[in-house]
Amino acid sequence: MNDTLRGQRALAIFDAVADLEGEARERRLLELCEGDADLLAQVRALLAADAEPTDPFGNAPRWGEAMAADAADGDHQVGRSIGAWHIVGVIGRGGMGAVYAAERSDGAYAQRAALKLIRASADSQTARERFLRERQILAGLQHPNIATLLDGGISAEGEPWFVMERVDGEPIDRWCDARKLGLRERIVLFLQVLDAVRYAHRNLVVHRDLKPSNLLVDADGRVKLLDFGIAKQLQDSGATATHDRALTFEYASPEQLHDAPITTATDLWQLGVILHRLLAGAHPFGLTRDTPVASQLQQLERDPEPLTRAAAQASAEQAALRGGLSPASLSRALRGSLADIVQACLRRDPEQRYASADALATDLRAWLDDRPITAVRLSRGARANLWLRRNRVLAASAGAVVLALLAGTGVALWQAREARIQARIAVQERGEAERQSANAGAAMDFLGNTLLAADPNQALDTKITTRQLLLAATAGLEKDKTLAPAARQAVQRRLATIYANLGEVQTAEHLFEVGLAGVEPHSRNEALQLARELTDYAVVLSTVGRPRDMVAPTQRALALRRRFAPEDEGMQVVGLTALASAHYQNGELDKAVADWEKSVALAERLVSPAPDVVEKAIDAYGALARMLGESADPRRGLRYGQAGLAFAERHRLPALSPIRISLLLYLSDAQALSGDNPAAEKSLRDAIAIAEKTAGPGGYAQAKLYSALGLVLSDLGHYPEAVAAAERAIGYAVASGSGVRDRSTGQIVLAGIHEKAGNYPIAIDCLRRALALVRTADALQPATLPEKIEMRLWRVVAENGAPETAMRRLAELRRRIETLSGRESADFAGVLTAQLQAAALANKPDLGLALLRQARPLWAKLAPTDKQRQRTLQRHEAMFVRMRGNLAAAEGLQRSLLTQLDAPQDKLARASVLAELAATRFQQGDKREARALLQQALPVLRDAVLPQEVTRAEAETLARQLGLP
């Protein structure tokens, strides 16, 4: 008898004798086993497991041991075909079924998957119902973080089976530990788990078996929720209980253990256990896989170990896996909101846990943003502390007291007093540091006294109070003549940073100027703080329209870092990146590229750079990708973009880290400028996916991403999708309160898409809206931004049927741009190109060729590797020489263009040139070739653009002359 049959026989005999007692059971047992000693031993093991006096499921391991022989059943399935699938291996086994690696075998297409099949020895009516229920549940769940059902059915032997996507990944706890993720990265990853769970709950499904082995993370950092084998569908919004007792002890909720009603709160308990393990590295009840069942039950009746205590008791190795922390520092990091969140999940009363997975996700996002959570009611002091933490960029030295001042609470007064005490202690401790600390102490005394004017009953986040207190501090600083100059300047610089953060850049500019005048640091810490302030000052200078003045402070900041921290190459990376940005803003592109290249070269040498250094290095890679793509060498830019991604992977930047977003955006620019628009689209969609998973839909960052996506889709000829992306970008920009420049850019992008599609009236409306925005705004912007918009506007006016009007306005615009930017600028080259289009539409070949003679060398100097620009100019030249009657020259230019337009993304441009060549051949009298060329071009043009688009309109006219449909 094989193992499978013996297992089935053992279960049948067990069922026959289980209700018998004493000699009657023994006699019947011997009779049914018919002398088979192995079979008899297996049934006795089942009876012994059934006799355990513990919880009905406390004997589950004993049942597993009794049926151990059945494990070999899985190996017998390898090589078998079921439906369209061929079993190639065993992935895992469970109490009810086994999961096999499978490949599609019907030849329709190649696909790897996971096939689940009910175990022969476990086949029963109850098992089948549970198995089929799992399949039905999966069929109704379509979510990126839930394994997808692909196929299912009943085999020829009557076995139910189903196939789902195969997830090649690691359990979430092992995945995090292998990459030594810090607490923030672990929470960001865990939010994907919550996305899946709350989706299931919204579809009235409670999983009931959430544990790390059912949460796999793939190579891209995407979580997949698996195994709905004991999941249950609720009959209404969650109030209907379920009573199926299947469970995993380590993660079982109290209601599962005590046969109480099961609701979505059960999943919240299990999420709390998982979160406890992810953060502290230990089970909240001290359980392991080796804990005996009886001990498990006893320990699960106790109160859970507090998160901070579990962390403090962790081994040094376990703590180090959480971002390099020690047990003590890990315990400190988990204090407060995180500990409260986990505790709220692990309340024994289901009614006292989080009301939903959404509520848990909201609190975790609040922790990420240093905002108050809802799990516990925070004191006013705790809320003030959170306010300070989420503004920690501003909270340096005396700035911490300024932020306490902004909080407007009694706690702020206490914090100011404590800060002053600490500063005075520092004065007593060391020599040269006495002078520095005395200055800090004096600054804190001044700011603390300012606090005395604050009403401690004011609300924490009242903007009026914030503004009033800032004004009071600034005014008080002007009146106080007793404050030492160094302390006064320290206050001025802190206030400048706060004003800049609030958007009041003119005030920040003045305070930085007086606060930085003549300041010389005397220690490493003082020098590095001053370097940060100089960099902040440079950003303010850029914002107020003084980019030429940015270089000096960033050069000084870099010099301070090199002088006071020469061994810290990470600091040099930060300083070089800031200096490169200043050169870029100042128009010194070669210097910017050189500094960014030095920055990434230094970063490549670092073995374990700090997170802020990794971020700056990735910014530098992205900037090089964009810069080189736009100006000098798109393929070199592309290489830097790809190297940036490799750098991020090498330093284990999480797949969902927001830092990747800007890099992917810049990489997409390089890809598009290199002619690989499909790759650019993928990069942008990857960036959008990260942004939406980490912050939800909407916001300024996603406005930029969707705007870029609109441009790429437009270049691919996918105009309806491009319009939808650009409109979404505008909506996000407006909703997020973006400035005039961003909102006008959104309108410009949308106009460009409509122009390419041939929807000229809407393009004109968009450009007029953009022009109105920048002309009426008080915000600072590039000097020639209105002129840039105008040159686009008049070009579209020409395409819309008024080329003469457009030519007059473009001539006026050209004179203005010559005065503003000079004859060697990109703006001047741009207006020449707009004039070329208007001259072509006005049928003025002599003017067009004269303009071309000016534009071509200028573009060759400004963008020597921009092949798309070169082709555009060649296309215009072909038009003008055809207008002058030189048909042979026009044909030569057009055929040369066709040899250059052979990439998939060139399909629309190629169709346009084919249509123009058809017109040339028609004029030469070759109607046959003209017809053949037009038959190639028209389907593409008709599919991509509107009838009134200039090239298509001319092609349609020619088609009618040739008798084409």
Give the SSE map:
Layout: H1 3-17, H2 22-33, H3 37-50, H4 60-66, H5 73-77, E1 81-82, E2 85-93, E3 97-104, E4 112-118, H6 125-139, E5 149-154, E6 160-165, E7 169-171, H7 172-178, H8 183-202, E8 205-206, E9 215-218, E10 223-225, E11 232-233, H9 254-257, H10 264-280, H11 293-300, H12 307-312, H13 316-320, H14 327-334, H15 337-345, H16 357-368, H17 380-390, H18 398-407, H19 410-429, H20 431-451, H21 463-479, H22 485-501, H23 505-516, H24 524-543, H25 551-564, H26 569-585, H27 589-605, H28 611-630, H29 634-650, H30 659-673, H31 677-695, H32 700-715, H33 719-735, H34 740-757, H35 760-776, H36 785-799, H37 803-821, H38 826-841, H39 845-862, H40 867-883, H41 887-900, H42 907-923, H43 927-944, H44 950-962
Antiparallel strand pairs: 1-2, 2-3, 3-4, 4-6, 5-6, 7-9, 8-11, 9-10
Helix pairs in contact: 1-2, 1-3, 3-4, 8-10, 8-16, 10-15, 15-16, 18-19, 18-20, 18-21, 19-20, 20-21, 20-22, 21-22, 22-23, 22-24, 23-24, 24-25, 24-26, 25-26, 26-27, 26-28, 27-28, 28-29, 28-30, 29-30, 30-31, 31-32, 32-33, 32-34, 33-34, 34-35, 35-36, 36-37, 36-38, 37-38, 38-39, 38-40, 39-40, 40-41, ...
Structural write-up:
This protein is mostly helical and 965 residues long. The protein has a six-stranded antiparallel β-sheet. A three-stranded antiparallel β-sheet has the order 7-9-10. Strands 8-11 form a two-stranded antiparallel ribbon. The chain is flat, with a radius of gyration of 35 Å.
